[in-house]
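seq:
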Amino acid sequence: MKKLFALGMASVMALSLAACGGASSSAAASSEAAPADTASSEASSEAASTEATGKKWVIATDTVFKPFEYTDASGNFVGIDVDIVAAIAEDQGFDYEMKSLGWDAAIAACQAGQADGMIAGASITDERKASGWTFSDGYYDATQTMTVAADSDITGFGDLSGKTVAVKTGTQGASYAESLKDEYGFTITYFEDSPTMYQAVLGGQCVACFEDTPIMQASIKDGDLALKVLDDTASEPAQYGFAIFSDDSKELLDMFNKGLADIKANGKYDEILAKYLG
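struct:
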């Protein structure tokens, strides 16, 4: 606007020097033209701003990964990840739609460009980074542990020889089990979701399952499941991260990181964890 006003004044001065007799009419014409140009510039700027802020980001997530994402008794989709995204979006002022797709489908949606990012208790690993995942700053430290039926006589990895354990496809729990199977001589059966995996242990098809510790503890408590997490079976902790699969979503990743830092600083992050983990 300042540049347009300066150009308008320059035009007035030039016309005044060239023809004193027409100075008043020329100046009037120039001053009338300036607001029109300014209005056009403001309209263009407003349209560009609307276009930028009007984007609705699509964020994919899992369906059942309590307490990070799940459906409560009232049918609402809730959880730590759900609340963290909501708090960050409010802090950063962006609009989004969260789609509950399941773990594998969420990854596929991001890779196909049908979703802009994914949050589903995804552990940050070098292997995933190498395969095209770009992670945010970590937002939660988690371990994986082994769980067995409440009346099981299995006390540790040494009791698994010749037996079958359950894991959820593509998870860090699966990777942890895969890293141990040759040493301890067990086989692995893969499942698409956690509840089905738990039922395989409860029903005796598998003697144990490997799951993220906070998810397993919450599932046992809230579902009153006849399962127990075994002591001394935890992996090294790994951070969960929000993930994107395309540079087109870099803006969303940057906003996530900035918002995460803000909600940690203002106490909102701790409130969310306390709400679900006590």
